[in-house]
Structures are given as C-alpha cells and as structure tokens.
Amino acid sequence: MSELTAYHEAGHALMAHLLGGQVQLVTIEPDDDDGPRRSGDAQILWRRSRMSDREFAVKSVQVHLAGPVAEMIYSGEPYHPAFIAEWSADWAGALAAAELLIPDERKRVAHIEQVSIALHRQLQGDDLWPALAAIADHLLAHETLDAEQVEEILEQYL
C-alpha cells in the first residue's frame, strides 16, 4: 500500500512542478490534525497573481488527477478515477476546479476523463516516468520530502 501511495503523491508533486507550482512538502505520512485521515499529502504553493482563475483551474485539474493516474500506471490497472474510494477527494477536486471551465456537469466529466487519458500518456513517457519514480523512491525511503529535496531530485531528471 505504501508503494501505491508514494507513486500517487509523486504524481501530484511532479505535475505541480511541471505546471509551475512549488512543492512545499510531499509525504506518505501526513498529519491528520487538519481533517480526515489521508494516506499521503502534497502541499503546493502557486503564484496566483501570475495566472488567471481559468489558468489555475486548468492546472488544478491536472494536479488533482496526476496522483490517481500515476498510481494506475504503477499498478498496471486502468481504473476510472471516479470509482476508487481512495481517489474520491482527487476526483472531487478536479470536478470543482473544472466547473469554472465547463459549467455543464456531463461535459465536465467527459473533459476530466480526457485529461486523465492525456496524463496517462504523458506521465508514462520515458522523459517523465523516471522522475516520478525517483520521487516515489525517495518518499519510500524518507516518508516526507521538503521543497529543497523535491527540487534536488527533479534537477537530475528534468
């Protein structure tokens, strides 16, 4: 289970980094003081003053879905992100972010499904998968990575 969680959180962290967010912390041992029990967490800092609400929504959808997609690639199981209970917060976050982009719920769900497919192709590529796997490996070894550690890992691959 911890390997799946490490790949899941690494997916969020890598996508946020690729889209211009700064990963403040990524962990597979989150603090539960601020809400419901989670098996992992990625804290991302965005420079919102440099982007429109629409641009932020596009990025947010991708970051929310990147965790489940990374987990699917690692496990080899092509699940639908809406049907896995552990991914419900990710799916709900993607739906909420995409509401600004596509008000019609049916079209919004179809859009998010297409984003998931595109992310699957992108993340499993030879240029990104090694970086994602390196973050996951470091998470398994250390459980928590700070901003500096994530940057050091990604410098080697990107």
Automatic annotation (TrEMBL):
InterPro entries: Peptidase_M41-like (IPR037219)
Keywords annotated in UniProt: Cell cycle, Cell division
Keyword set includes Signal: no
MF (Gene Ontology): ATP binding; ATP-dependent peptidase activity; metalloendopeptidase activity
Keyword Cell division: yes
Domain of life: Bacteria
One GO-annotated biological process of the protein: proteolysis
Protein name: Cell division protein FtsH
